[in-house]
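Lab notebook, page 48
Experiment: co-folding of the full assembly
Goal: obtain a model of how the components sit together before planning crosslinking
Operator: M.T.
Materials (sequences as entered):
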Amino acid sequence: MIGAINQEPPIVKLPTGIPGFDLIAYGGLPQGRTALVSGTAGSAKTVFAAQFLAAGIQKFNENGVFVTFEESPEDIRRNMQGLGWDIARWESEGRWAFVDVSPVPGTEIIEVGNYDLGALLARIEHAVKRINAKRLSMDSLGAIFAQISSMSTVRSELFRIGSALKRMGVTAILTSERSHEHGDIARYGVEEFVTDNVIVLRNVLEDEKRRRTVEILKFRGTSHQKGEFPFSVIPGEGIIVIPLSASELKQRSSDIRVTSGNPELDAMCGGGFFRDSIILVSGATGTGKTLMVTTFMAGDLSNKERRLLFAFEESREQLFRNATGWGIDFEKMEREGTLKVVCDYPEVASLEDHLIRMKQVISEYQPARVAVDSLSALERVSTVKGFREFVLALTSFIKHQELVGMFTSTTPSLLGGTSVTEAHISTITDSIVLLRYVELMGEMRRGMTVLKMRGSMHDKDIREFTIDGKGLHIGNPFRNISGILSGNFNHIALQETDRLRGLFQDTDS
Amino acid sequence: MNKYLLKLYITGQTPRSEAAIANLRKICETELNGVYEMVIIDILERPQLAEDEKILATPTLIKELPPPLRRIIGDLSDTEKVLLGLDLRPAAEQDNP
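Observation: model returned without errors.
Model output:
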């Protein structure tokens, strides 16, 4: 073989089975290699390492070996139970094996002369062969230095272990501590021997809120998505990565119309909302957003399609009472199985957790229409960046489900104005309905306009609307007032309006 | 005198293993007056034993008897340190027997 160029086959990816991660990794971890997973204390390294094996067992029928340098196997079995992984059972079934290198309490190790980690390598090889493992996790590197001091030994031995794993066709993860977020990748300088592939887990405190992210720093010889992606650790599930740009806008567009629940609004929209579109309803507090959501939920009850409402501002009782006040019986709808109302305070969970839960409920319930009242209430529990990602991820998810969605957004000021929500969402929504207060001759009236209606003609007027016991009624356009959208009203004398109308006479109307 | 039970874990017949065995044998013969049992375990042949004893590095010498249990890793090239580790040398100030 002298002179022959040792040509390695192209890199194949092994799907980890960690939800969302394989999307950002373009398929998974490079097969037969060792990837370094680096993070500060509490960044979910051990969960990542354990889930890599658990997902292999559950989803791909691939067995795994867990080499623990730090926690005892008992601790790991117990801690991972909360994530739904019955490690003890897998062990008895020969699908999971521990190599326990955790420190023995009370034993001091004396070093006399040279040594190597041949014992560890032999144990790893033994465990891999015994259960025919395809995956291996080592957690975590730093703890090894509590037992032996020679850094150069660890370095060369890790290299030897890495080559042995490669030879056996095992894909592996090695976790390591970082002392600071956004600092050096790794702490010991040992890691560079396995850093063909580096994944960084972060748990950053930002505006008093914790935000977990995962970033693939490098995959040598193969591609992956760049940047940080938020993730959450969910009880009973483990790590769920939220891929943002991975959910591309490739949904089909439909020209089937569905009713908004209000015939006059349907007429303004040119015949109703499109199915698989997203409508943003923006307005100040009390302009009638919840009413619009309520009528939207009750629209076209003749078909038995399911509707789902996420409420973040009002309690269930309030919502049901309000609906009754407008002649809509939510309770009956729930009994008939056409409605599900999920009420939550935004503060009960992080935004990532909300997103994952909402996705789960939508996937399980399979509604035909879904509403979120209000989206802007969720701004409270997140940073601006986190909120933007949330809106993007939720919108693209709903569009992929091909259902019609209505989001409400509360503007901070009573008159005019836009909210952060709108800034993030307006370009990805298909329709925008603005509800505004209009001050007219010392009186507060309400005005509504359809600002945008993708793929359709719509009424461009700003129409007055009223709310009574039967719901929302859309009346005539405001003719002698301008500046409604900005909140800087300007009254125009009636004869002036008539004169302008004469000048720009619509011949076809 | 208590009987010594010493177990030496090695990985295959490497020069390092040979050195550790030779060094240990010498120490036993000169210091333990025949009241010892020396067991050599090759991890490559019996990996489960290494698993049970949680052996990380090789060579590892474990003094199982008499208590307390002691673990020494390395090729045992420094006799004085080994003796200290096996509690065969009292603390430094009473060095003279």
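Interpretation: Chain B touches chain A through 35 residues (CB under 8 Å).
Next step: discuss with group before ordering constructs.
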